[in-house]
Amino acid sequence: MKRILFAAVTIVLISCSTKNDIKPGPWLGIIQMDTLPGRLDVPFNFEIKKGNGSIQLDVRNADEVISITEVKRIGDSLITKFPTFTSELVMSFNDSLSGFYYPKGIKDGRRYRFYAINGETDRFPWFTEQPKFDVSGRWWFIENPGTSDSTIMVAELKQVGSKVTGTILSTTGDYRYLEGKVSGNMFYFSKNDGAQTLIIKGEIVDSTTMINGLISGGPRWVSGWKAKRDSNAKLPEATSLVWVRKGYSTIEFAGINLEGNRITSAEDRFKGKVLAVLAGGSWCPNCLDEGRYYKQLYDKYRERGFEVVSLCFEDKTFEASQPKMKRFAHSIGADYPFLYVAPRGHEQLDSVLNALDGQMAYPTSMILDKNGVIRRAETGFSGPGTGEHFARFATETEELIIKLLNE
Asked: Which residues have a Cβ under 8 Å from the Cβ of 169 and sit 6 or more positions away?
């Protein structure tokens, strides 16, 4: 997938004597995507809270809560590392905050300028017109319309006053938690959740049409879009996009676990168990949502014979991938196996999941019965940011697992 209801990021600081200190209260953070047309700024709200020798930074992107505990303080500067993913925010502070955002970490070198405005609670304060339209509802959202790269998605939006929350769903997953506003006849959305830095804007022509849209997650991803309101807009079911190849009934896998040991599907821990096989990676935000969901199921049903294994497609070597996988597993809080199986790529995904055919993406999952037979396969994952879609998936999945455990 190329690729926010309420995010909170907690920063625990190392005590350090300094003449300056960070001001508590609301801030508006701005990441400057200087290399994009017109220098597209990506805003996100956060609040600084102080007390008991610690500082807490609550980043607001609708409903998600993200806690950053990896922080290094050097004088009047902070080096903060988002959990799960490799993004880092480096900033100095006195009367203001400024610095750089590294989407893939400091070692990668790529960075965008960052600054923050104290006391600002509006996500897009420079757009002040009263909204001329209410965009609440379901929309066909078409990226790169009229081109060979055209992608049809569904946007689900909720507007209260000028504020808009919601997400965009695709066949490979959802864009997770998005937040923005309508100002006049213009629509704005953004997010920064440590995995993606996203800006979306478009022109509202009337109550059913948006045009001249732009969506970008960085210099390598700048696309146009248009949208059409349709209460019946719906994507194909994830289970219809992939299927078990003729002549196959099960899947065999092998990989290296977090401790560096080789694990295969022939291990005793998998025999006679209902097994969820999750194919994804530590870099994938939809895989994080999927992992969190299956962690809950694993804790609930493991004593009845339910197992989970995560097949991780990462960097070129296990050595380079291991710390990222450990970080990912720790963030989820899961103690089922995470196996390095191959570098990231579509060819590698097709090769490892050779029992499946169709439009596979990250993540792709399978549920096997006690005899090892694949009983469901699907690609993509619509997480909790999608509301009723996730609720329906969660109910259907748990019912299937209970059914297979009772067979």
From this structure: 153, 154, 155, 156, 175, 235, 382, 386, 389
Q: Domain-by-domain residue ranges, the chain?
A: 25-118, 137-229, 238-406
Q: How many Cα atoms are found within 13 Å in the side-chain-facing hemisphere of 133?
A: 19
What's the predicted TM-score (pTM) here? 0.86
Q: Which amino acid is at 174?
A: D
| Tens-digit pLDDT profile for residues 162-198 | 999 999 999 888 999 999 999 999 999 999 998 889 9
Assigned CATH for 137-229:
2.40.128.120
Omega cis (within 30) before 363: yes
- CB-CB contact of 160 with 173 (8 Å): no
CA angle 90, 91, 94 (to 5 degrees): 165
Q: What are the phi and psi torsion angles at 391 (to 5°)?
A: -60, -45
Name the token pair of 131. Answer: 């909204």
